[in-house]
Amino acid sequence: MPPGTADESFLHRVVTVLSAFRPEDDGLGAAELARRTGLPKSTVHRMALALAETGVLERRGAEVRLGLKLFEIGQRVPRQRVLRDAALPYMSDLREATRQTVHLAVLEGHEVVYVEILPTPGGPDLPSRIGGRFPAHATGVGKAILAFSPPPAVRSIVDGELSRVSGRSVVAPGLLVRELERIRKEGVAFDREESGPGIVCAASPVLAPDGSALGALSVSGWSGRMRLHHVAPAVHTAALALSRALGDRPSGALR
Amino acid sequence: MPPGTADESFLHRVVTVLSAFRPEDDGLGAAELARRTGLPKSTVHRMALALAETGVLERRGAEVRLGLKLFEIGQRVPRQRVLRDAALPYMSDLREATRQTVHLAVLEGHEVVYVEILPTPGGPDLPSRIGGRFPAHATGVGKAILAFSPPPAVRSIVDGELSRVSGRSVVAPGLLVRELERIRKEGVAFDREESGPGIVCAASPVLAPDGSALGALSVSGWSGRMRLHHVAPAVHTAALALSRALGDRPSGALR
DNA sequence: CGGAGCGTTCCGCCACGTGGGACGCCCGGT
DNA sequence: ACCGGGCGTCCCACGTGGCGGAACGCTCCG
């Protein structure tokens, strides 16, 4: 080990191992985990046994998978729980009124994390998953949140690498900044096939009493079947109503 | 520490600290965490800082709370993800048809863990929460699952302590065994105010191709407003349809 | 029949988790 | 104004337990 290098701590390694599980995975073996994490097989194996002992992982023969205990603890995370519980009825109304798929997301670093998704029977198969991530600058919810976020956080994203998720993603920093200004004025963000081909979306921020964004609501559908100027007022209204409801409650700590 | 006792390992302590957060909590201080876990304050404080470094916990001033990363990982847990994704449309239909609150739960030890809940506007405020636990013998979903579970697992619960959750909970082992036999014959379990006053529920197991229960669906409502013999066929039908859909797919590892 | 990949076990080394104690701070009661 | 209790934070000598290269037995496949 090169001297001066703060080698990864034990806890970092644990998180690395847990994060190595992908959504589509079921059980993984010690060798596969070692390959994904870059850790010695012996180390991963010992750790997997210890984690299984605690219930964080579950043994299935020789393989190991994420345990139900992680799901239980994950549901108690305040950042999603409080917002999700308050938003659910508004999301339900929004789906009813627009007959489209409704999303609720929060910002985490340079990406959004989807907290809840209400799919609609006839709608497209979207790549978004509850608990999944997506680059903030390439989604409606992401831009809606960024438009009402502290300048330093926005700067960090604008000056960072703006990945081209689809052919129409906004990757020019100047263009993105100007779009955020427009969103700040109008209160609604749009995504015209920027996150995926054939998919459009209108999004509006959920605001704390101090004006900063806690998250965002959105409505998504096929570009041919959904008129953005039609659903935009509905999304905006729902987000305003939710913001007001959150402000009234003594919900306290969301940010 | 009594000699011979294998003092709790570091990982056990980490899980203890994470489990110390209750659903209604937001941020907790080092002293409060030390009190709840029984660990030395110094130890908890150091651990909290390390966990915050990994993103598992988030620092909020001097306090610390469960981090969004835990929610993300929790959503990847296969036991809930595969079942929940497959069940959602059937649950939605069931709510539509019965106009009552629909639950999906799995068995974990002596308790059920709620995986998904579709509330209905006019329904009662139930104590159940997604990711929450409840004694299996005192709920409709619990009894539905137990009726189709391996005898050793059932024995362990029947012979264990059958807590009296409400005044009408089944606490007599013999009575419970006989009820499970009836459920096995009819395919539907009932809960007549056994888990809470004024609440009734009909539940039916989601079965793997081998006949063992993966989880259960239920419909709950006010005892005066919902007729059990009316919703029972609907729950049973939905559960059968879901079981068949899971059997057809190469979903693989659910148990 | 041989090699590749797997899960599992071993063991000497030393990083790092340990926890009692101390410190400065902000309270709220007197 | 004073003081005591609770808080977050920090320190440091101690020794536990994580470390990981290596080796073993196994199964599968060409």
Describe this structure in words.
2 copies of one chain form a homodimer. With 255 residues, the first copy, chain A, is α+β, with helices and mostly antiparallel strands. The first copy, chain A, has 2 domains: 68 residues, Winged helix-like DNA-binding domain superfamily/Winged helix DNA-binding domain (Arc Repressor Mutant, subunit A), CATH 1.10.10; 177 residues, GAF domain (Beta-Lactamase, 2-Layer Sandwich). In chain A, 43% of the residues lie in helices and 20% in strands. Chain A contains 9 helices and 8 strands. In chain A, the strands form 2 sheets. A 6-stranded antiparallel beta sheet of chain A has the order 5-4-3-8-7-6. A two-stranded antiparallel ribbon of chain A has the order 1-2. Chain A starts with 9 loop residues before the first helix and ends in a 7-residue tail after the last helix. The N terminus of chain A is likely disordered. The interface between A and B is large, with 54 and 54 residues. The first copy, chain A, binds a DNA duplex (30 and 30 nucleotides) through helix 3.
State the name of the first-level CATH class of the largest domain in chain A.
Answer: Alpha Beta
The value of Rg of chain A in angstroms is 20 Å
Order of helices and strands of chain A: HHHEEHHEEEHHHEEEH
DSSP strand content of chain A: 15-25%
CATH architecture call of the largest domain in chain A: 2-Layer Sandwich
Total helices of chain A: the number is: 9
Report mean pLDDT of chain A, rounded to a whole number. Answer: 92
CATH level 3 topology of the largest domain in chain A: Beta-Lactamase
State the total count of DSSP E strands of chain A.
8
